[in-house]
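Exercise 3.2. Students should predict the tertiary structure of the chain below and write it as structure tokens, then compare their answer with the key that follows.

Predict this chain's 3D structure.
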Amino acid sequence: MLEDEIVLPYVYRVTKYDPADRDEDGHYIGPEDTFSDHGQVEAAYLQAVEAFAVSTGIDHLTVREPQIPSLVHFGVEEPLGGSGLDGLFPTGPSGFHDGAEMPLDISLELVRIMLRDGGAWCRLEVEDVFRVHVGWDQYLYIGSSQPCEDALARTRALGLFPERVDASPYDVEADGGDIQRPGDDEFWAGLHWAVASCRAGILEEAYVEGASRWHRLTRDTIDTVRAGLAPRARLAVWPDLSSDIDAVLGALPAEGLVECVWQDEAGRLHSAIADADEFPALATRISGAGAATLLPVSADERVPLFTAVMPDCDGVVRARWRTDATPSDRNWAFLKTLRRGEVVTGTVTHIASFGVTFVDIGGFEALINIPELSWRPINYPSDVVAVGQEISAEVLDVDPIRERVSLSLKALHEDPMRLLTGLIGQTIVGRVTKLVPFGVFVRIEETENGFEGLVHNDELGEMHPDHSQQVVQVGDALAVKILDIDPIQRRITLSHRQANSARLGEQGA
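Answer key:
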């Protein structure tokens, strides 16, 4: 479940720039510097934010969409140590995460860091009530559920220029149609299975935009890793590291960027992004590693096994950032739409050598096991279906952990064996189809794939149990009495001895 953002009715752009000093496109062309003066003007910005917060009745704010620079810092000032966050939070930099709630004074210090391009950025808000963040060139955007007339007057008195706008150009644009998998119990059950089946081995945790931690996964460590994740972190699951370091180094491309993730001798995970010029230094760094892997940097090529975003403790995903959907994520979203017992239509894509029939149902390949193809006995799936054939089937089971859907073709048809129960007690003549050590099988219907019943050796009459195969052969006609038909167990019990007794009794009469 994903929370949607509410548009606030009163949004103001607050700047130190006189609106008269703008060109026809709205760009500032005046004499003011586009970075903080670290003094009177910066203080005026902070006092304006405080005035709007007090006018709205706010004394605490929540961090949303926190970011720190990764490869490149685009600010006009040098980034500060620790992205400017050192000493700001009682718990250290780990306190800077999506959903972290803090008092107004610390919130104002975060606004100061953003005004100074210190390296950290975020939105600060109270849900559906108040929002503030800094845009490029110190354009400050403040949204409120109230008109805040006194705060507007205070802002003007500070020498700043507040303007009413429809919305901030930096507002989150959530697409309700996007796939977002929550990192809930079902996700972690799937991760346990992926690790146990050797499909997965490392977890990438993006705890803020621009910063990640890596975790090596085993069946014994998954729960510990889960407990230590940052709130609302984005997760990406990847195949395990390789212990063949020479093979990893041999896979370095001739050009372009790659990310290398490796585990040192102490068991710690590291990562580094490098280009071709830096490959020799990278090779030196990982030459003594216990295991490593290479991952592409390009978004088009960087496709993990599956992804998720950690929800809050109530199961709601409140982080507005999303992961890029993988094929597995799209499968998960599709499986969430299926229900046991519903009827789906699809096309037979292929029939495996082990007898399973695969059916494309809207881009996902479901399977039908041989017993679910027909109520009647069949030898091969091709006796019932053909590749390319469109069929309808009932959903038997949906397994989102293993990404498996089981279908039944026969469930849409009446069981013909039930129609035969009226024959119980009757004597018929059938063909012997099979000889087994404990008796013979006799087909009780004339059709080629008709149901067969068992005549146990004890019910073969005068024939000696050890020599029944010398007396009866496959293809022989044999009179049998139908003793029982059990559609649940798929068993039909026959007796040649009782059929003979009935026939002799009729002759005697």
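Discussion points: The chain has a mean pLDDT of 90. Residues 185-325 form one domain.
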